[in-house]
């Protein structure tokens, strides 16, 4: 009997990267019976991250190798994409040593979008090169096409009067561009354009979306007269891949006891991903807005900061800061003690969203969170903060109709309490046509996601197709 195909996977730090990579490894192991070695670069500063890595190792489904930390003491770049790119570049030598030490050589390397410099190692060891995009196809389209926009467009993207055209895809509004495109003078912009080129010249790209969700965009990659002009790699939509790994807290905690006592679909869950934070002013409006909405809520709170992605590299597990009273409006905790539950820093999100009491999700629109909302069939309020979240918000609200979003972009303006309360009521309670349509659409997308992953579904078939190719070395 042939021995199973051995595949290596490398993930950059950050929960939004770690979770989908580990989930992909789990699927490749359990459904496709591959042998996997998962190389992780962790931030070494997050207890939630440590718990997730330990939980992944404990499954015994694949081998986890944490690469030794690289020296970053001289790095002054504080942008998320810039730091991630440098971090992953500096881990290439450690990856090389780790792969050469393996007794069985993997036939393919699957890198996340920040790890494509590891392809140099894949070439040395004659491994095929695949990319796992833990985001959606529209984001992938922009990433690939950034190399063309870079030549076409003069000046800053955000100053353009017209939307950015991507062949065969929805245009991107200048105000929605991804963070690394906000300022073309920053080094993270060059890293981003370079990333797009590396992805386009890999052997294949796995994207966390599905044909029925983003059919037009996915088709444009195949069309030589559209994005196929710059995209040389075949794209396999294999999603939604939504995590099952916990970060150590179980379902018996105080939060879940509270949720069990609430009526069905009565609670809105408020959380801004692994890295998101609000300003002091915005937190005040959020607190008053939730109170005004008169809906039950669970809110994952973090101390206010000026930067909206302040927690990206340092997500905690709830043990760091328990004193919300310091920064929430006076009396808020007392007034809402019957209807609201505050969680400090980190909640077990997929379990919360799976609770029958939860009927809405106030999210920053990170792609993992968006998919977690979609697969649970909950309507959303999307409040984009960083990365590609502005694009996600536009897509979820304007195109897919499963969410509402604030009129102004958070970050440009403080969103007031009345608007917050109105959005919460819209998705949770209002019996107007719009609220009903959003809730119905959320259920429809949930069914579409389930169908895509079920046997014979589009993602199921695409997955099987690409897995067969992993055995062929590069
Ligand atoms: N997450 C969680 N609890 C929290 C915050 C985030 O479990 O309190 C998880 C969430 O379920 C998701 C991931 O962290 O799987 C965040 O990824 P996403 O792409 O949504 O956003 P990012 O953190 O990368 O901005």
Topology:
Blueprint: E1 6-11, H1 15-30, E2 35-40, H2 47-59, E3 63-66, H3 80-90, H4 92-100, E4 108-112, H5 119-124, E5 128-133, H6 137-152, H7 187-200, E6 204-207, H8 211-222, E7 235-237, H9 254-260, E8 267-271, H10 280-293, E9 296-301, H11 332-335, E10 340-344, H12 349-353, E11 358-363, H13 367-375, E12 380-382, H14 389-399, E13 403-404, H15 417-428, H16 433-453, H17 458-470
Parallel strand pairs: 1-2, 1-4, 2-3, 4-5, 5-6, 6-7, 8-9, 8-11, 9-10, 11-12, 12-13
Helix pairs in contact: 1-2, 3-7, 6-7, 10-15, 15-16
Bound molecules: uridine-5'-diphosphate (UDP).
Residues 14-16, 19, 243, 271, 273-275, 300, 346-350, 366-369, 372, 387 line the site of uridine-5'-diphosphate.
EC number: 2.4.1.-
Organism: Cucurbita moschata
Pfam families: UDPGT (PF00201)
Which features characterize this protein?
seven-stranded parallel beta sheet; six-stranded parallel beta sheet; 17 helices; EC 2.4.1.-; alpha/beta; binds uridine-5'-diphosphate; 474 residues; Rossmann fold
What is the CATH level 1 assignment of the largest domain? Alpha Beta
Rg over alpha carbons: 22 Å
Largest sheet: 7 strands, parallel
Bound molecules: uridine-5'-diphosphate
Spatially, the strands of the biggest sheet line up as: 3-2-1-4-5-6-7
The CATH homologous superfamily of the largest domain is named Glycogen Phosphorylase B
Structural class: alpha/beta
What count of domains describes the coordinates?
2
InterPro entries: UDP_glucos_trans, UDP_glycos_trans_CS
Pathway: Secondary metabolite biosynthesis; terpenoid biosynthesis
Keywords: Glycosyltransferase, Transferase
EC number: 2.4.1.-
């Amino acid at each position: 009997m042939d021995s199973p195909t051995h595949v290596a996977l490398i993930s950059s730090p950050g929960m939004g990267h770690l979770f989908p990579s580990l989930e992909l490894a789990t699927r490749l192991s359990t459904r496709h019976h591959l042998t996997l070695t998962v190389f992780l670069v962790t931030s070494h500063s997050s207890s939630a991250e440590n718990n997730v890595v330990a939980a992944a190792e404990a499954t015994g489904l694949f081998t986890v190798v944490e690469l030794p930390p690289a020296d970053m003491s001289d790095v002054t770049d504080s942008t998320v994409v810039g730091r991630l790119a440098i971090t992953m570049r500096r881990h290439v030598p450690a990856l090389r040593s780790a792969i050469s030490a393996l007794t069985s050589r993997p036939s393919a390397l699957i890198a996340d979008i920040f790890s494509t410099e590891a392809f140099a190692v894949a070439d040395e060891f004659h491994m095929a090169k695949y990319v796992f995009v833990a985001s959606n196809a529209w984001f992938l389209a922009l990433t690939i096409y950034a190399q063309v926009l870079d030549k076409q467009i003069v000046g800053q993207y955000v100053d353009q009067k017209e939307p950015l055209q991507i062949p065969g895809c929805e245009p991107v509004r200048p105000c929605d561009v991804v963070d690394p495109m906000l300022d073309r003078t920053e080094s993270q912009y060059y890293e981003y354009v370079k990333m797009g080129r590396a992805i386009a010249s890999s052997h294949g790209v796995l994207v966390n979306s599905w044909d029925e969700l983003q059919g037009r965009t996915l088709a444009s990659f195949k069309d030589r007269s559209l994005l196929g002009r710059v995209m040389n790699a075949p794209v396999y939509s294999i999603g939604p891949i939504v995590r099952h790994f916990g970060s150590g807290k179980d379902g018996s905690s105080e939060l879940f006891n509270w949720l069990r006592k609430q009526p069905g679909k009565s609670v809105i869950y408020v959380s801004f991903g692994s890295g998101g934070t609000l300003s002091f002013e915005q937190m005040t409006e959020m607190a008053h807005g939730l109170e005004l909405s008169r809906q039950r809520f669970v809110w994952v709170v973090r101390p206010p900061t000026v930067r909206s992605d302040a927690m990206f590299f340092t997500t905690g597990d709830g043990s760091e800061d328990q004193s919300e009273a310091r920064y929430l409006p006076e009396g808020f905790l007392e007034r809402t003690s019957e209807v609201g539950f505050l969680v400090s820093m980190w909640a077990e999100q997929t379990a919360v969203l799976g609770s029958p009491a939860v009927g809405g999700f106030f999210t920053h629109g990170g792609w993992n969170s968006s998919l977690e909302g979609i697969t649970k069939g909950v309507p959303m309020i999307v409040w984009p903060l960083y990365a590609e979240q502005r694009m996600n918000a536009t897509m979820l609200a304007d195109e897919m109709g499963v969410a509402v979003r604030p009129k102004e972009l958070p970050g440009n303006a403080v969103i007031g309490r009345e608007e917050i309360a109105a959005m919460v009521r819209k998705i949770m309670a209002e019996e107007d046509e719009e609220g009903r349509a959003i809730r119905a659409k959320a259920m429809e997308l949930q069914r579409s996601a389930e169908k895509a992953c079920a046997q014979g579904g589009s993602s199921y078939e695409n997955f099987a197709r690409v897995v067969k190719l992993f055995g062929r070395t590069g």
